[in-house]
Amino acid sequence: MRLDNKTTRERAEKRVEELKGYYRHILIFVVVNGILLLLKTGVLTALLPEAFPKESYYYDWINTNVLLWVLILLFHTLFVFRNKISFFKKWEERQIQKYMDEDREKVDKYK
C-alpha cells in the first residue's frame, strides 16, 4: 500500500499535534502541581492574602489532585505512544485475528 504525499503529510501533522498536546499537558501538570505543592508545604503562604486559610490541613486535597492527574497523564502517555508500545500492536493483531476467525466461522456455518 503506497501513500501519497498529501496523506503522509496529514498523518505527520496529526502526529505532531498529538505530541504538542502531550508536552503541553506535561508542562501544565508540572507548573500547576508545583505551585500547589509549594502552597501545601507553606512556601507560598507569605504571598497569600490574610483572609486566605493558611493551615496545612486545608490543602490535603492536593495529594489526591496530584494522584488523579498522574493517572490521567499516564493514560495520555499510553495513547500518544500507542504505536511505540508493542503490547498494543500485539493486542490489536490478536483482536483482528479473533474477529476474522469469528466471521469465517459464521460463513462456514451457513455453507
Short note summarizing the structure:
By secondary structure, the protein is an all-alpha fold. The protein is 73% helix and 0% strand. It is built from 3 helices and no strands.
Give the helix tally: 3
How many β-strand runs? 0
How many distinct domains? 2
| Helical residues, percent | over 70%
Give a verbal description of the structure.
The chain has 111 residues and is mainly alpha-helical. It is built from three helices and no strands. Helix 1 packs antiparallel against helix 2.
Supply database-style keywords.
transmembrane helix; 2TM domain-containing protein; membrane; 2TM_dom; elongated; 0% strand; transmembrane; mainly alpha
How is the topology of this model organized?
Layout lengths: L4 H37 L19 H20 L5 H24 L2
